[in-house]
Design goal:
The protein has two domains: 152 residues, Up-down Bundle (Four Helix Bundle (Hemerythrin (Met), subunit A)), CATH 1.20.120.520; 64 residues, no CATH class. Helix content is 81%, strand content 0%. The protein is globular. 23% of the residues are buried. Bound molecules: fe (ii) ion (FE2).
C-alpha cells in the first residue's frame, strides 16, 4: 500500500515533473468523458484530431523522460529506473494501438463506427489509468531519487535541455496544456521565468497563443497582474 504522506512532499525541492504531468492529467482526464459521450455515427474529426495531438505530446514526453531523466539517473547509479523504462515501453505500445483504432474509425463506414468508438473509449480509459499511476510513481519514487542524486541547479539544467530540444510548435503545444493546469502562482513563476530569460517575441507568443486562449478572462487578468504587465 502506498504511503501518501511520506512520499508526496516536495520539501522545497525542484519539481521537474509537476507542470507537465499536471498538463497531461488535465488534458487526458478531460478527453476521456468526451470520447465516452461522442456520437461516433458521425465522423468526430475534431475530437480525433485533439486526441491525436494529445497522444503526440504524451509520446514526446515519454521520450524526453527516457533521454534526459532516465539516462541521467542511470549515469548516477539510481535504482528502479528499469521499472519506469518498462512502463514507458508499455505506453509506446498503447500509443500505437490507440492510433490504429483511430485510423480504423476514420476509414470505417458509419454503421461500424460506434463499436469502434467504444473500443477507443475503453482503450483510452485503460491508458489514462495506467498513466495516472505511472506519473504518481515518477513523482513519488523517481523524484526523491533525483533529489538525492542531483542538486536543484542540475535538475533545472536537465529541464532546460528538454525545453531547448523542442521545436517552437511543440513547445507551444506543451505550454497550452501546462498553463491552464497549473496553480496561479505556478503559472506566474513559469511565465515570469520565460519573461526574464526567453526572447521577448517567444514570451509574447506564449501569452497570446497559450495563456490567453486557454485561461478564463479572470485567470488571464490574474496572470497579467502577477507578471506586472499591461493587458
Ligand atoms: Fe514517465
Amino acid at each position: 500500500m502506498t504511503d501518501f504522506n511520506s512520499t508526496s512532499d516536495l520539501n522545497g525541492r525542484y519539481d521537474i515533473y509537476g507542470a507537465v504531468h499536471k498538463g497531461l492529467r488535465k488534458t487526458q482526464c478531460e478527453l476521456l468523458p468526451r470520447l465516452g459521450s461522442a456520437d461516433f455515427s458521425i465522423p468526430q474529426v475534431a475530437l480525433l484530431t485533439e486526441l491525436r495531438a494529445l497522444l503526440t505530446l504524451a509520446a514526446s514526453h515519454v521520450q524526453h523522460e527516457d533521454h534526459h531523466i532516465h539516462n541521467a539517473l542511470k549515469a548516477r547509479g539510481a535504482v528502479s529506473v528499469e521499472r519506469l523504462d518498462h512502463q514507458h515501453d508499455d505506453h509506446r505500445k498503447t500509443f500505437a494501438e490507440l492510433e490504429a483504432i483511430i485510423s480504423e474509425i476514420e476509414k470505417a463506414p458509419a454503421a461500424k463506427r460506434p463499436a469502434l468508438g467504444r473500443r477507443l473509449y475503453l482503450a483510452f480509459s485503460a491508458y489514462v489509468a495506467h498513466d495516472l499511476e505511472h506519473m504518481f510513481e515518477e513523482e513519488t519514487v523517481a523524484a526523491p531519487q533525483l533529489w538525492s542524486l542531483f542538486t536543484d541547479a542540475e535538475l533545472a539544467e536537465i529541464e532546460n535541455r528538454i525545453v531547448g530540444s523542442l521545436p517552437p510548435e511543440k513547445s507551444m503545444a506543451f505550454m497550452q496544456i501546462m498553463i491552464p493546469a497549473s496553480r496561479p502562482d505556478e503559472r506566474a513563476a513559469m511565465l515570469g521565468g520565460m519573461k526574464q530569460h526567453a526572447p521577448r517575441e517567444a514570451f509574447d507568443a506564449v501569452m497570446e497563443f497559450a495563456a490567453r486562449p486557454k485561461l478564463s478572462a479572470a485567470e488571464f487578468a490574474d496572470l497579467v497582474r502577477r507578471l506586472d504587465l499591461v493587458a
